[in-house]
Structure formats: structure tokens, C-alpha cells
Write a structure and sequence with these properties.
With 94 residues, this protein is α+β, with helices and mostly antiparallel strands. It has three helices and four strands.
């Protein structure tokens, strides 16, 4: 089942994001078979990162929440909020 993992960074936390980015990318690389799409959410001008959006395939919500909790960004305290919700791909149709 696909899950959207929506993470909003704490204000003025770009240094935390950049310091933990290599570990975050390595973590995602270790789960790439579960990834449908992943990337940062950007500021309106596209110059800064303000959060993360990941669409991942897990057996259930507990597994998705465990993945989100293990993300080095989350463990470093980067996120103000983390929301995990089931997600259904509709368009484009497969």
C-alpha cells in the first residue's frame, strides 16, 4: 500500500537539514525498492527546502511510521510535523 509521508521542517533549520542530508539520502537508498517518489518541498521561490514529501510502498501504516521515525532527518529533530497517510495513485492511470 502506498503512503504519503509529509514532513514540514522547523523554522530556520536549514543547517540541520544540510548536516544530515548525506545520512538521509543513504537511508532512502537503503529503501529504494519501497520508493514511489521522494523529494524536498521547496520555498515559493524554489531556492530553499522546507520539508520532505515521500510516497512509499509499505505493508501497513505501522511500517510506514517506523520508516519515518528512522529517517535521520527525523532523528536529528529537523521536522516540526510528520504526517503519514495512505495514498492512492489515480492519475496517470497505469
Amino acid at each position: 500500500m502506498l503512503f504519503a509521508i509529509i514532513c514540514h521542517d522547523k523554522k530556520d533549520s536549514s543547517s540541520v537539514r544540510m548536516a544530515n542530508r548525506p545520512a538521509h539520502l543513504e537511508y532512502l537508498g537503503g529503501h529504494k525498492e519501497k520508493a514511489f517518489a521522494a523529494g524536498p518541498m521547496m520555498t515559493d521561490d524554489g531556492d530553499g527546502m522546507i520539508g520532505s514529501l515521500l510516497i512509499m510502498d509499505f505493508a501497513d501504516k505501522a511500517e510506514a511510521e517506523s520508516f519515518a521515525a528512522g529517517d535521520p532527518y527525523n532523528q536529528a529533530g529537523l521536522f516540526e510535523t510528520v504526517t503519514v497517510v495512505p495514498w492512492k495513485k489515480v492519475i496517470p492511470a497505469d
